[in-house]
Amino acid sequence: MVTTGRRAARSSGTGRRRRGLAAAALVLGGLASAALLRPADPAASAEVAVVGRGTVEDTVTAIGKIQPRAYVDVGAQVSGQLTRLHVTVGQMVRAGDLLAEIDPALQQAKVEAGRAERARLTALLTEQRARAAFAEAQLARQASLRNSGAGRGEAYDQARMEAHIAAAQVEATQAQIRQTDSTLQADEAQLGYTRIYAPMSGTLIAVDARQGQTINSTYEAPVLMRIADLSAMTVWTQVSEADVTRLTDGMPLYFTTLGHPGRRWTARLQQILPAPLKPAASGTGGSSPPSGSGGSANSVVLYTALFEVSNHEGDLRPDMTAQVFFLAAAARDALTIPVAALAPTGGAEERHRVTLIGNGGAIETREVRVGVRDRFNAQILDGLAEGERIVVGWKTDDGRPPKIGFRL
Fold first, then answer.
1. Do 309 and 267 form a contact (C-beta atoms < 8 A)?
2. CATH number of 45-56+331-394
3. 152 Cβ contact partners less than 8 Å away, ≥ 6 residues apart
4. CA 251, 254, 257 angle in degrees (round to 5)?
5. Residue 281: which pLDDT band, with cuts at 50, 70 and 90?
6. Strand runs labelled E in 91-213
7. Which residue has the higher pLDDT, 162 or 14?
């Protein structure tokens, strides 16, 4: 009985120790859970950006095509075989240089025939003038005889008629000579057109004809080549109807090209065409503005904005694509923050709220005034100082950065 009592007492003490250890474990677990559930430092879960300085540009972007400012399509005004081609693509020419020659045989024959006809009419006019002079003399004699009473009235009338006929024949021949001169002048001009000269100085950027080719100019003048002045270029820019109202004549702009991605060309907007351009009809010979420079594509109305840029270095070439940025507003060396940090206040458009993190990690909200904005950054006019830390977003529960949506 004594042994059984000791065993029971020992067993009871062991149970109490086990229950004490379990209770202690529960307490420690609770403390650990409380530590885990305690709110962490808010700054630790914030995506932070530092107020810095930079350039903010509010731009209207568009795509443009680069074309020569001045160019001319050289065509043929007469038909015939192209017997000589004196130039090649890429060659520099001056105004008045001989470019090509067309077989002049047909035009030369017309000129010779016209000259022969004029010579015949000139001889005929000499004969008719002699007859007119003789008829005038006869009329004078008959008039003298009639005045003296020795002549007959019938003879006088006959002489007067012949004098008038002779004078009319002279006038008719003179009119024929004038007509022949006009025809001969046109034929000589056509003969001159068999030699094609450069109408302006520039570079041959295209030659569409080949030596020995037969040229037919009966219905329209075929284009043989294009001469362009590449010292200055015009950029034909497509601007959507949503953005064209933001453009003004004279506003600054810059553009880049695919071939020179690190270089900017600057210029000023010169003209906005009042209506979208209609698509150029086929067979125009390239004399119309570049295709795609305006009009409607997929129900999007595009207006054409034009500006010129110097090209003395020759880096810009016809039909290059330009990424154009029209500067509606710009701020340089300005205090900037990400647009994602801005929250509207519901008041003035330029007033926004931002969340800051102080030096001690305290979170505060401050109202700021915003100036120029682009898609990513905004200029701060007042309310923040350089170097202050602002909250752009908050991390998710799994520690990943949030998906930030940029406000436009």
1. yes
2. 2.40.420.20
3. 146
4. 150
5. very low
6. 92-93, 98-102, 195-197, 202-207
7. 162
Taken as a whole, the chain contains a residue count of: 408
List all residues 6 or more positions away from 22 whose beta carbon is below 8 Å from its beta carbon: none
Task: Report CA-CA distances (Å) from 51 to 1, 125, 343, 351, 386.
Answer: 85, 99, 16, 17, 5
Q: Where are the domains of the chain?
A: 45-56+331-394, 61-69+230-281+288-329, 104-193
CATH fold of 61-69+230-281+288-329: Elongation Factor Tu (Ef-tu); domain 3 (2.40.30)
**Amino acid at the residue 45:** S
Q: What is the mean pLDDT of the chain?
A: 84
Distance (Å, whole) CA 43 – CA 302: 48
Quick check: 292 pLDDT over 60? Answer: no
- For 235-259, the pLDDT digits (tens) are 999 999 999 999 999 999 999 999 9
Question: Residues 72-97, buried b or exposed e (16+ Cβ, 10 A)?
Answer: bbbbbebbbebeebebeeeeebeeee
Q: What six digits make up the tokens of 137? A: 């003399």
pLDDT of residue 408: 38
Burial class (CB in 10 A: 0-12, 13-18, 19+), 390: buried
- Check if the beta carbon of residue 72 is closer than 8 Å to that of residue 387: no
Q: Which amino acid is at 36?
A: L
pLDDT at 15: 53
> 407 pLDDT band (50/70/90 cuts)?
very low
Q: What is the CA radius of gyration of the chain?
A: 47
Joined tokens for residue 6: 């000791």
More confident residue, 402 or 72: 72
298 conformational bin, left if phi > 0, alpha if psi -120 to 50, beta if neither: left
- Asked whether the beta carbons of 292 and 322 are under 8 A apart, the reply is no
* End-to-end alpha carbon distance in the chain: 91
Q: Which residues contact 97 (CB under 8 A, 6 or more apart)?
A: 86, 87, 197, 198
